[in-house]
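Appendix B, example 12.
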Amino acid sequence: MNRFVLNYLGFFFILLSVLSFFNIIYSYYFNLYLNIDTYFYTLLVSLLIGIGFFIKRTNGIKVSIYNKIFTVVLGYFLIPFIIAIPYYLSIYNISFLDCYFESISGFTSTGFTIFENIRHLDQSLILWRSTSQWVGGIYFLFSILLLIDIFDDAFKKSLTNFISFNYSEVFKQSFKIFILYTTLTFVIFLFLKLIDLRTFDSFNLAMTIISSGGFLPINNISNIINTNFKEVFFSLFTLIPSLLISIFSIFNSFVSCFFSIKTSCSSSKLQFF
């Protein structure tokens, strides 16, 4: 299999291992010791698969658009298997089919859930549900880059100055998206804190909003968005995902302009000396 394909999927498995580690820290900090093994197994499995994808010897043949489409679809089936592990190993005795359904629902930001009462879930599992949405949101954005060849040149130019997306160009643009996506998540989290939401709810809602997800950390959003002021701000935040491509285009133009100016200054100094 092509190195491009394996690295693409391997990145998300390693990302899940990192997020599993954060859940281990969270469970340990809040004395949720029964959950530590659950996320440790998730970390171990996802890390081994991710590293295996990166170190596997592959050929250098250019991947076709059909292979790219197959890779994106394959990821939508494989990655939820890892996301399903904490549900399956939890204390709630959930069947694997239900666990897989919940993980796909989160990863695709659909929002359908098997849980009737979110208040009965422990906080680490609620956090994992929000995490699955966050990963699914960035997977979707990365997939746009992977499948860039099916779009017209105007759309390509909105993302980069290069019409042809080779391996290094996709990596560079993906890194920019990851930085922007993470930064916006943190900014939304800070604003939710400013409107007097508790830290746990703010963090979960930030991951839900940025990914256009449907999972909530509570049964009814009106329990925490309980004033007109909060409702207006929350409504404005939900517009961010729909504007994400436009925000990225502006961000990309700013970065390109910054490096262009920096390069010009360096050239001027060289000419001076």
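The chain has one domain: 3-272. The mean pLDDT is 83.
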